[in-house]
Amino acid sequence: MSTRLRWAVLGPGSIARRFATHLPHSELGELAGVGSRDAGRARAFAEEFDLGADAVIGDYDEVLASDAIDAVYVSTVHTGHAQLAIAALRAGKHVLCEKPLAPNSGTVMAITDAARRSGKVLLEGFMYRFHPQTLRVLEIVASGELGEITHVDASFSFDTGRREGRLFGTDVAGGGILDVGCYPLSLARLVAGAAAGTLAVEPSSLTGSGTLGPTGVDEWATAELVFPSGTTASLRTGVRLADPQSATITGTRGVLRLEDPWALTDRQIIRVDVVGEEGREIEIEPAHAYALEADALARAVAAGQSEVPELTLAFSHAQAKSLDAWRAQLGLRYPFEADTAAIPTVSGDPLRVRDGAAMPYGEIPGVGKKVSRLVMGCDNQGDLAHASALFDAFFEEGGTTFDSAYIYGGGHHEVLLGQWVANRGVREDVVVIMKGAHTPHCDPESITRQLGESLERQQTDYADLYMMHRDNLDIPVGEFVDVLDEHVRAGRIRAFGGSNWTPERVDEANAYAAANGKQGFSLLSNHFGLAEALDVPWAGCVHATDPASKAWLEERRIPLFPWSSQARGFFTGRARKDDLSDAELVRCYYSDENFERLDRAGSLAAELGVPTTAVALAYVLAQPFPTFPLFGPRSIEEMRSSMTGLSISLTPEQTAWLDLRSDRPA
Ligand SMILES: NC(=O)c1ccc[n+]([C@@H]2O[C@H](COP(=O)([O-])OP(=O)(O)OC[C@H]3O[C@@H](n4cnc5c(N)ncnc54)[C@H](OP(=O)(O)O)[C@@H]3O)[C@@H](O)[C@H]2O)c1
Q1: Whose CA is nearest to atom 40 of ligand 1?
Q2: What's the 51 CA to ligand 1 centre distance in angstroms?
Q3: Separation of 77 CA from ligand 1 center, angstroms?
Q4: Nearest CA owner, ligand 1 atom 19
């Protein structure tokens, strides 16, 4: 690669023209190509910007295949960013992608994951962030000159005149919030960050309102933010009203005003009024913001950094979450995001297991499929875009098994899982756990009624594995076995078991089944992990971390699907003897023995060069009975971090030492 980046534009529309106009002022880059879906459009752009005979001109694939291009500027409509950005990263190009990276945070999560794995740099195109005016503003905020920052007021709204084009189409994620509302939102987060000595801070609450126009997009919207420090922000955005484009930052000692925070077309004035001092105006010379952002990316590349420090991938992901929250306040969801939408993979490629995926598998009699040893918990995916991106990533890593329940999210999570399975056509490849009959509906009739509803929500006619979510000691165990056996015979479930069932009741159920020629319990899902539980987090839960339960599991060898196998954060660094702030953690796990286990896991982790949580997971996987730990990552990043435990195999000696059953060092 040359020391200067050779850039190509993908999507030569109006903003690409501004980029191409600024780029000649770049220190570290030059325009060397253009790609468009339309060959004529690419050629016209190349002519307009005098690209020489060596320029790469063609469709997107041709540009991405060229060795004469180092970096691409993705400047298509919002809905076109994700696929192109991922294709470019995979083709070995650095990517400057116009804001927003994608219409929703689930899709952004997949793009940032692709960037982290590619070793290439991805930057979201907030060019104003790199302009000297913004740098100066953030410096002033950080200096404390304005006192404590109390409020940010910012607006980006303009009048398009006519209701036509990409800003008014729901199919291309039109509307003001995503197109320009993202600017005031990002500034408020950056200002809160500068005040706190960090890059950005996320609002603890966001309320908003607005108007959806006749085409279904937001034409006017406001948002009120509160940050953890107490700083507030008022944001306005729109595409049918020319509100002044401005920003005011108020502190306990002074006020800073900007009359042109975003477009930055000319010489700028920052007005600062501090109490008791004469007001001052800081002049900022005109600058080429698009060239500056291209150079920020180039500098990160030259320094061998994986991302641009001024605008990280985590910044973009968090930004997308706040944009989701803002749109949700208006009830604005695009048709391609609906719970019933046929959402494709973010890369656009068919879903398949990655070569070299390290997932181990086990078997459960009756299921007839590979059961991944790690089981994805389906209880915290807010929407289908997020669920799809996460489940795709899990599947690509060899994950086959998904844990759902009738009560999770009032049924919404079952709908999302079912839609993803249907969209991908993987019903015969995945193992779906359904759970039902949670207290107070823990009775045979509720099992049948809820199972029927779960199957319908998940668009399927069978559960690979079914578990009663709780037990009800008022009901003779045989009544449960009878109804579950009936469902097996009818083909609605393949195998069943109990979650939060005691060893005694499981033995009783299996004795009844054996005596009556019925199928018995073939799995159990209780709390289990390296830390011994002193108490359980929720009423009605059962753990299997005590020596008697462990001995029973070893003897029966019944497959265990442990929940909270990481002891609710005990091994993540959150637990410290002198920190009693997490009452649940203290109640359930704080004991001298568990802190000794934590120490041992920590020292073994350091030796192996993995996080302590990986050792805690490896401990669960290394048991002498089959284990299939459930995990509930909230992002692909968390998923990958948890999965590092799969690469470690512990010896029986190490396992015994971790569990304080031997003094021998590992
Ligand atoms: N940073 C800023 O200040 C700023 C300002 C304005 C816009 N933007 C961002 O830049 C991006 C492009 O905005 P723009 O105003 O430049 O857009 P545009 O001119 O309307 O279109 C840009 C390109 O997108 C592709 N495209 C257009 N319509 C499409 C459709 N229906 N489906 C798929 N692709 C389509 C075309 O690429 P092909 O030629 O390859 O077909 C077109 O050349 C947006 O994400 C926007 O947020 C940023």
Answers
A1: 36
A2: 20
A3: 4
A4: 13
Ligand 1 contact via 131 beta carbon (within 6 Å): no
Boundary-marking domain end, from 478, 509, 525? 525
Contact of 87 with 35, CB cutoff 8 Å: no
Type and span of the H or E element at 292: helix 289-302
Report how far ligand 1's centroid is from the alpha carbon of 49 (Å).
18
98 Cβ closer than 6 Å to some ligand 1 atom: yes
- CA geometry: angle at 208 spanning 206 and 210, to 5°? 160
What is the rounded average pLDDT of the residues 76-101?
Answer: 98
| Lowest model confidence (mean pLDDT) among 43-47, 309-313, 415-419, 544-548 | 544-548
Q: How far is CA 206 from CA 185, 202, 216, 418, in A?
A: 10, 10, 22, 30
Mean pLDDT of the chain: 96
Residue 41 lies in a domain: yes
Please indicate, yes or no, if residue 146 is contained in any of the structural domains. Answer: yes
Ligand 1 pocket test: pick from 77, 288, 319 the residue with the most ligand atoms within 8 Å of its Cβ. Answer: 77
The contacts of residue 372 (CB under 8 Å, 6+ apart) are: 359, 360, 361, 398, 399, 400, 401, 431, 628
Q: What percent of the chain has pLDDT over 70?
A: 99
In a domain, 494, yes or no: yes
Q: Rounded to 5 degrees, what angle do the CA atoms 402, 405, 406 make?
A: 145
Atom of ligand 1 nearest to the CA of 165: 20
Ligand 1 contact via 37 beta carbon (within 6 Å): yes
In the 8-state DSSP scheme, what is residue 412? H
Do residue 240 and residue 172 come from a single domain?
yes
Q: Can you tell me which atom of ligand 1 is nearest the CA of 178?
A: 47
- From 126, 154, 170, give the residue that closes a domain: 126
Helices 612-621, 636-643: axis angle to 10 degrees equals: 60
Same domain, 259 and 406: no
* Burial environment of residue 51 by CB neighbours within 10 A (0 to 12, 13 to 18, 19 or more): buried
Domain encompassing residue 40? 5-126
Residue 105 domain-assigned (yes or no): yes
Nearest to 593 by CA among 577, 581, 572: 577
Pocket test for ligand 1, best of 75, 79, 129 (most atoms within 8 A of CB): 75
Report the domain count for the chain: 3
Distance CA 63, CA 55 (A): 10
**Residue written as tokens 């875009």?**
385
Nearest ligand 1 atom, CA 166: 20
What is the whole-number distance in angstroms between the Cα of residue 123 and the centre of ligand 1?
A: 17
Q: Is the pLDDT at 327 greater than 90, yes or no?
A: yes
Please give the Cα distance from 315 to 73 (Å, whole number).
19
Contact 208, 128 (CB under 8 A): no
Q: What is the mean pLDDT of residues 143-158?
A: 98
Band of residue 1 on the pLDDT scale cut at 50, 70, 90 = very low
Cβ contacts of 40 within 8 Å, gap of 6 or more:
none
pLDDT digits (tens, 9 = 90+) for 548-565: 999 999 999 999 999 888
Query: Does residue 38 have its Cβ closer than 6 Å to ligand 1?
Result: yes
Mutate to test the pocket of ligand 1, among 72, 81, 98 (most ligand atoms within 8 A of CB): 98
Q: Report CA(13)–ligand 1 centroid distance (Å).
A: 5
